[in-house]
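Entry 14. Structure prediction run on the chain below.
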Amino acid sequence: MTFSGEDCKLKFNNRRNLSKISLEITHTFTEGVTIIMKLKDLLKSVKIDSSCPEQLKAKLNEIDIKKIAYHTKEVGADTLFVCINGHKTDGHKYANQAVINGASVIVVEKFIEGIDVLQLKVSDSREALAQLSSNFFGHPSQSMSLFGVTATNGKTTITYMTEEIFKAYQLKTGLIGTILVKYDKEIEMSRLTTPESYDLQQYLAKMREHEITHVSMEVSSSALELKRVRNTEFDVVAFMNISPEHIRLHESFEAYFDAKASLVRNAPKTSTAILNIDELLLIPLANQTKAQVVTFGIENSSGTISVSDIQFSSGMPSFTVHIQKPFKTLSGNLIEPVSFGLEMSVPGYHSIYNALTTVVTGLVNDIPIEVVQQGIKNFCGVERRFQILYDNEFKVIDDLLLNQNNIHSCMETISHLTYNKLHLVHALRGSNGPEHSTEIAETLAACFDQMNVAKIILTTASSHVEKKDEVTPEELAAFLKVMEQNNIEVAMFEELDDALEFGVAQLEQEDILLLSGAHSMDQGARKTLELIKELYPTVDHEKINQVLESKLIGMDTYKLAENF
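Output returned:
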C-alpha cells in the first residue's frame, strides 16, 4: 500500500586487557529471546510524514515486527526495512528486494512505486532508524553507565584506559570502538568506529542481558552527523581534541567541529561533560550544554583540574593531578579539591591528556582515587597505538601515523626514549588522494633530521589491501616527490613482507624499528615478530610469543571481520 494525499503525523510520547586471547571470537553475540513488537508500539516517538487513511491506525496495531533491518541480507519474515542513504548507495533502491526477502513494512523518505507492503514516509530515515532501534530493544542505554568520547586522536586509547579503571573496581564492563566490540568473553571485530544505530542498540541490549554496568564507547564525527547515537543516553561525554584531518567526511571544518560538538551540546542535565581546555575551540562549549562540565588542561591551569610535576622515566610520564574546583559524581556525591599522583605504563606527553579524561570518568562514576590510580597504572596500551611490541636488544613499535597529530605525538614520544637509529617501515595509505600523501610525507620529512632517520622503507602492500584501498600511482608519486625534495632516501617495496624483512635486517643494538600505516600494516606486527625470531635466534622468544598470543589485529582471527 502506498499513501498519497494530505499529510498527517502520528505522534507518541516516550521518555527520553585483552592480555590473554582466551576470549571467544564470534561472528555474532549470543542471541537473546526473540523480540516481537506491534508496529504501533515500535513507532512511538517516530514522526511519520505519510498520508493516513482511516484503516492505518488499525493496521499499525495488527502488524507484528520481529526484526529491523537496513541491509537486505538481514531481511526475513516480519521485518521492518529502513531505507537509508549511505555514502555509496541509496537504500531505496533495494526496497523491492527487501519485500522479496520478507519485509512487511518499509520506512522511506520517498514513496516507491510498485511496493505492495505498507510504506511509512519519514523526513529522515536515519533518525527514524535510531528511534525504532531504541524502541525495539527497550532503550538499553538507560540500564548502564555509558561513557562516550569524541576526538580527532586518542578515542581508542581513552576507551581502553577507562575500561581498565572500571575493571580495577571490579565492574562488569563493555567496550565499543574502532577495533572491536567486547564484553565478558565475547568479541566482535568492528566495521565502523561507532556502529550503525540498530547495531549499536543491539550491542547495548546484549550487554544489558549480561548485566554489564559500565560501557566505554568511541563516538566518531560521522556517527554523530549520521545520527547513529541518537536515542542513546550517555552519562559521561568527553571532547578531547580536534584537527582538520577528517574534513573530507564533512562539508567543512565547521561542519566537522559541529558534529563532534553535538555530543557535548546535546548531553542531558544529568550527565557530565569533560573538556580539554588546552584546545581553544573547545572552551566555549562549557556554556553550550546542560551537563555538568569538568575541564582540565596541562598548559591552561584555569580549569576544574590542572597538573604539575610532569616527569618522564624511560618515556613513561608521572605527574600530580590537582582537583581545583569541586564537582559531583553521577550519584550526587561531591568530589572535593585534592591533589594526588599518577604513574603511567604507556609513554608520551599526549598520554597525560588521555589519562586526565579517564580520571574524571572514573571519579564521576564514584570510583575511589586509589582505584583510579591503579587502573591508570594497569593500562599498558592498545594495539597499533604506539604499541611497544618488543623491548630488549632493540625496540619494535607499532603505530598508525594516520595524520599530522598522530605523527607529532609518535615522534614526541620517541624523543623521550633512548635509542641509536630509528628505522621506519611505512605502508602508504590509499584511497585518500595525493594531497593526503603529500601531507603525511611532509610531516614525516620534517621529523627525520631530529629523529636520526637515515631513510624511509616504503611499501604499497599490494597484496594486503582491498581494491578500494589500493594506492594509486598519483598517491605514490606525491609521497615520493616530497621525499626527493628533502633528499630522503626511499627503499621502495611493492609487497609488505619484503619491506618488513628489509627493515628487520637493518636492526642493531639499541635501534628502534617503527611500523606505521593503516589497514595494510595491520598484519605487520605479527610478520615482524616472526621475522625477528627467525633472523635473530638469541632474542627473547618467550616475550615475543606472549605478544603474539594476545594480539587480535592482523592475526588469523581478524579475518572474521571480513565476513560481518
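The domain at 387-550 is CATH 3.90.190.20 (Protein-Tyrosine Phosphatase; Chain A).
Filed with the rest of this week's runs.
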